């Protein structure tokens, strides 16, 4: 079968990956209501095209923190791309570079920061998990900064890992050789045990000042779901916000990200870029997020599907499909540039 959509890639990847690895990547917390809701929110969107607008060749390039992105799209931080393909994040970074897209590299990446930065032609941001041991976190950030990462993305929705029932039932352990190679001295094979032993469950807003004291990189917070937290983040002086429910993997029952995106964009009122992730599987989903005010979107699991199916080439094809579908949706809604995207494109 020739894969034409991200859904095709998902089906192919499911057939290739070990079932326990598949469950770890695909699964969500609890009954997976939020996981399902993320995608359902986009299914309910109806676009309202305008005609005769001469939008045959839409300009989809954008700038974030002064860097040019070929499209308002980046790869979301995900642990252990090496679960999907032995080249792991190296293949992802090469794939993203081939289409001019940034990658947010997880604290739990399976390949070294240095090799990722040398392979990258687009920005790389470092996702940060804050550990109970602050010096460990500091070493991670200094390592990322030294290697050449361009921004920090602090994940704020994971004082502990969500209750992922598939992994509990499977007693999921990382296969031999899969490890967070940028962290010193780690002997864990269970992500859940690792998280409960090491993530700082007492984290509060003072962490922003602490991060500012150790790094001058732009700082985003990932995992915001309410207007009041978005306002709090702006007051704390962050450079960007990622509206995220961790792909439905943390607290089941929280809203779909697309549902809360408008209220967060309104609360932030242009103070900093608002990005969003969760359930984005088509170019028109990207368009919908931009229409309600997102500066860009992050794509998670589909990248792992591309890797599982065809390594670097598969991941590049997945990202290329999204770009092509976004361009197509813009042409067909009569939207010649990103600046022409507006909330009126969405109907109910
Ligand atoms: C296998 C997997 C690993 C993930 N690891 C991380 C991580 O290390 N740090 C993080 O902030 N988010 C992590 N996430 C959450 C993603 O960054 C993102 O929020 C989510 O996957 C977006 O939803 P989508 O997969 O529906 O696109 C992970 C998600 C998956 C599926
Ligand atoms: C401290 C170990 C956490 C690894 C889990 C990665 C992750 O965020 C996920 O959603 O899975």
- CATH H-level superfamily: Aldolase class I
**pLDDT under 50 segments (min length 5)?**
none
**CATH level-two architecture:** Alpha-Beta Barrel
User: Tally of extended strands?
Assistant: 12
Q: How far apart, in Å, are the first and last alpha carbons?
A: 35 Å
Overall tally of domains: 1
Our estimate of the beta-strand percent is 5-15%
Query: Count of helical segments?
Result: 13
Shape: globular
Report helical residue fraction.
40-55%
Major beta sheet, specifics? Answer: 8 strands, parallel
Overall radius of gyration? 19 Å
Bound molecules: flavin mononucleotide, the ligand CCCCCCC(=O)C(=O)O
N-to-C SSE series?
HHHEEEEHEHEHEHHHEHEHEHEHE
Mean pLDDT: 97
Structural class: alpha/beta
CATH topology: TIM Barrel
Strand order of the largest sheet: 4-11-10-9-8-7-6-5
CATH class: Alpha Beta
Task: Supply the key terms.
8-stranded parallel β-sheet; 43% helix; binds flavin mononucleotide; TIM Barrel; alpha/beta; globular; binds ligand LXCWX6NK; 348 residues
What is the gist of this entry?
The chain has helices spanning 6-16, 19-26, 33-43, 88-98, 113-119, 134-147, 165-170, 191-198, 206-214, 227-236, 257-268, 283-291, 301-333, and strands at 46-47, 62-64, 67-69, 73-75, 103-105, 124-128, 151-155, 219-224, 240-243, 274-277, 296-299, 346-347. It is α/β, with parallel strands linked by helices. The chain has a single domain, classed as Aldolase class I (TIM Barrel, Alpha-Beta Barrel), CATH 3.20.20.70.
What layout of secondary structure does this protein have?
Layout: H1 6-16, H2 19-26, H3 33-43, E1 46-47, E2 62-64, E3 67-69, E4 73-75, H4 88-98, E5 103-105, H5 113-119, E6 124-128, H6 134-147, E7 151-155, H7 165-170, H8 191-198, H9 206-214, E8 219-224, H10 227-236, E9 240-243, H11 257-268, E10 274-277, H12 283-291, E11 296-299, H13 301-333, E12 346-347
Parallel strand pairs: 4-11, 5-6, 6-7, 7-8, 8-9, 9-10, 10-11
Antiparallel strand pairs: 1-12, 2-3
Helix pairs in contact: 1-13, 4-5, 4-13, 10-11, 12-13
This protein binds flavin mononucleotide (FMN) and ligand LXCWX6NK.
């Amino acid at each position: 079968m020739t894969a034409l959509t991200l859904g095709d890639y998902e089906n192919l990847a499911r057939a290739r990956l070990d079932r326990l690895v598949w469950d770890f990547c695909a699964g969500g917390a609890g009954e997976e209501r939020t996981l399902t809701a993320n995608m359902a929110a986009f299914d309910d969107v109806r676009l309202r095209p305008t005609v005769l607008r001469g939008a045959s060749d839409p300009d989809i390039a954008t700038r974030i923190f002064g860097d040019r992105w070929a499209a308002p799209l980046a790869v979301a931080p995900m642990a252990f791309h090496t679960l999907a393909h032995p080249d792991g994040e190296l293949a992802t970074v090469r794939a993203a570079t081939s289409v001019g897209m940034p990658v947010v590299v997880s604290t739990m990446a399976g390949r070294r920061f240095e090799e990722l930065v040398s392979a990258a032609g687009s920005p790389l941001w470092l996702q940060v998990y804050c550990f109970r041991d602050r010096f460990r976190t500091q070493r991670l950030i200094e390592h990322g900064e030294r290697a050449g990462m361009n921004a920090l993305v602090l994940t704020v929705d994971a004082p502990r890992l969500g209750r992922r029932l598939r992994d509990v039932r499977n007693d999921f352990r990382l296969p031999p050789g899969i490890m967070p190679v940028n962290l010193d001295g780690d002997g864990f094979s269970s992500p859940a045990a690792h998280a409960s032993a090491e993530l700082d469950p007492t984290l509060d807003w003072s962490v922003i000042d602490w991060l500012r004291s150790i790094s001058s990189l732009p700082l985003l917070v990932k995992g915001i779901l309410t207007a009041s937290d978005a306002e709090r983040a702006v007051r704390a002086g962050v450079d960007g916000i990622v509206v995220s429910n961790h792909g439905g993997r943390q607290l089941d029952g929280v809203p779909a990200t697309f549902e809360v995106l408008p209220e967060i964009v309104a609360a932030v009122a242009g103070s900093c870029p608002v990005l969003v992730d969760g359930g984005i599987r088509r170019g028109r989903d990207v368009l919908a997020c931009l229409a309600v005010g997102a500066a860009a979107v992050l794509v998670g699991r589909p990248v792992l599907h591309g890797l599982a199916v065809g390594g670097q080439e598969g991941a590049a094809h997945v990202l290329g499909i999204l770009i092509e579908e976004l361009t197509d949706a813009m042409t067909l809604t009569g939207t010649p540039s990103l600046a022409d995207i507006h909330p009126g494109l969405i109907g109910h």
